[in-house]
Specification:
Length: 309
């Protein structure tokens, strides 16, 4: 059994390069796998271990000045969720594309999981899912808006297209959420900058909500996409029912796999008509290498997608 920690914190780092090197060395010595992003605005990532070293890694990050109250969501996985450790330097630990948006200076108001239902049930609340379209497609909160983005940096353009009135900006409650809290927190900084007065974001995100709110009181519908080999998790934080298309990195269902446009490791109904014969041939070669590695009881060291929380 592997323990998985999704974590982040917006806190100003004076020397990201130095911290990057220190964290990489410490986590490597603890045999931690996963991805951490380090930038001037803070730390973001998901890490995993099969032993108590995960707690030691979290304690070490919390010992860094400004990260004492690091936001951490724990879950588990029967299979190894990551195959290596990556610690990266980034301009933004979650990319919105506007460096003037600074969550270390101004953000909306945190909402605890226990108070979330009453906020989103309120008649004057606009609920916004700040995640990408493929994440929304497998699960979201009831009656939430879908910006239909493919990348988080598209979110500001979506807000501008909505043409919110001055009255709405002044009187409506804006309730935003994401997987682990980081994207909706940064989005709340954007909304404050755009003049919205009553801006709220779900503390700890969907994962903390799953951890804190009983299923019979939940407003969540479906499963939650996660950025590791589990693909999705259910409300009890157990591994979900989705797999991933290794051609386009999108979640796929059992029905998708029955389609004539599904080729294992190559394409799914969403991307089959969008990839060339050359691309499919390349993906087939990659899948062959993965299968050969599996036969040798090894893990193929392929590329991983970007990490969000």
């Amino acid at each position: 059994m592997y323990r998985v920690a999704a974590l982040y914190k917006f806190s100003r780092i004076l020397d990201p390069f130095k911290l990057h090197n220190e964290l990489r060395l410490r986590l490597k010595n603890l045999s931690i796998h996963g991805t951490l992003l380090i930038g001037e605005e803070g730390i973001n990532g998901t890490i995993s271990s099969s032993n108590e070293n995960l707690s030691l890694a979290i304690d070490y990050i919390k010992s860094i000045k400004g990260f004492e109250d690091l936001d951490v969501k724990l879950s588990s996985s029967d299979k190894k969720p990551f195959i290596r450790l990556k610690v990266k330097l980034k301009k933004e630990i979650v990319t919105i594309g506007d460096e003037s948006i600074d969550p270390t200076e101004i953000v909306g108001e945190y909402v605890e999981s226990k108070d979330w239902n009453s906020l989103i049930d309120h008649k004057d609340t606009i609920v916004i899912d700040t995640r990408n379209n493929y994440e929304f497609s497998i699960g979201t909160f009831k009656n939430s808006l879908n910006p239909k983005t493919t990348k988080f940096r598209e979110f500001p353009k979506w807000i501008n297209r909505q043409k919110f009135t001055p009255e709405e900006k002044k009187h409506k409650n804006i309730a935003m959420f994401c997987t682990g809290g980081i994207r909706c927190e940064k989005a709340s900084s954007l909304m404050k900058k755009e003049g919205f007065k009553n801006v709220y974001h779900l503390k700890g995100g969907i994962l903390k909500y799953f951890e804190s709110v009983p299923l019979n009181k939940s407003r969540w519908e479906g499963e939650c996409f996660v950025f590791d080999d589990r693909v999705s998790v259910k409300h009890d934080l157990s591994e979900g029912t989705y797999d991933m298309c290794h051609g386009c990195r999108m979640p796929i269902t059992r029905d998708d796999k029955k389609s004539k446009k599904y080729i294992r490791g190559v394409a799914c109904p969403s991307c089959f008509d969008k990839t060339s014969k050359e691309q499919k041939s390349r993906y087939m070669s990659r899948q062959k290498q993965i299968d050969l590695a599996k036969e040798r009881n090894q893990k193929h060291m392929g590329p991983k997608e970007e990490i969000f929380n």
